[in-house]
């Protein structure tokens, strides 16, 4: 029997998901992706400032790179020490004490992870999905969020793919099949929590 509390209120509660940004970029086309991911990381930093002010939860949804003994903390340190590119992204997006994380074995943040349970326990109704790559892990995570009746926001300035065409195709698809809001992050409005 499942004793977890179900969210009964449908009042809007957002969460920011940061997908696969903790990465060493040491793979074919990794240098090209890094050059495209760096401005995205800076846009996520700006969005995250607003997220923190609104007391909105932040969840890192990151590949475990098939390292089954690693924790997220060891993954972060391994990435930071593996490459200059990884270190630069980690320095921009290092998780804060109050953040959550989910390590995923495959493309979707929901596949074989506790992400759905975490979102439910936090009372989340809307997910803001950022990160890399728009046409792979962001796409699969956003689709699976939509299948779970979550409202999906994928801010166009907070995600990228290897090409503009791949990014545009993925965002167009998410708008059409997942009712995703893909406007830039400065258009996102947050309901600030009372202290």
Write the layout of secondary structure elements.
Layout (H helix, E strand, L loop, with lengths): L13 E6 L10 H24 L4 E6 L8 H11 L1 H10 L6 E5 L10 H8 L3 E7 L4 H11 L3 E3 L5 E2 L3 H15 L17
Parallel strand pairs: 1-2, 1-4, 2-3, 4-5, 4-6
Helix pairs in contact: 1-3, 2-3, 5-6
What does this structure look like?
- The protein contains six helices and six strands; from the N terminus they run βαβααβαβαββα.
- Helix 1 packs parallel to helix 3, helix 2 packs across helix 3 and helix 5 packs parallel to helix 6.
- It is globular and about 40 Å long.
- It has a single domain, classed as Isochorismatase-like (Rossmann fold, 3-Layer(aba) Sandwich), CATH 3.40.50.
- The N terminus is likely disordered.
- Helix 1 links the parallel strand 1 and strand 2.
- Strands 1, 2, 3, 4, 5 and 6 form a six-stranded parallel β-sheet that branches.
- The protein is an alpha/beta fold.
């Amino acid at each position: 029997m499942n004793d977890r509390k179900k969210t009964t209120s449908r009042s809007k509660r957002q969460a920011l998901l940061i997908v696969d940004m903790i990465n060493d970029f040491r793979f074919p086309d990794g240098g090209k992706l890094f050059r495209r991911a760096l401005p995205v990381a800076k846009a996520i930093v700006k969005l995250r400032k607003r997220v923190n002010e609104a007391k909105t939860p932040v969840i890192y949804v990151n590949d475990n790179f098939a390292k089954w003994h690693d924790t997220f903390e060891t993954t972060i340190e391994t990435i930071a020490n593996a490459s200059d590119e990884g270190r630069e992204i980690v320095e921009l997006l290092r998780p804060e004490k109050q953040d959550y994380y989910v390590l995923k074995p495959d493309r979707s943040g929901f596949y074989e992870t506790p992400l759905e349970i975490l979102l439910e326990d936090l009372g989340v109704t809307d997910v803001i999905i950022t990160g890399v790559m728009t046409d792979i892990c962001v796409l699969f995570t956003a689709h699976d969020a939509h299948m779970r009746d979550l409202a999906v926001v994928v801010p166009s300035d907070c995600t990228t793919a290897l090409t503009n065409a791949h990014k545009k195709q993925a965002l167009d698809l998410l708008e059409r099949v997942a009712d995703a809001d893909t406007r830039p992050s400065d258009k996102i409005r947050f309901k600030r929590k009372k202290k």
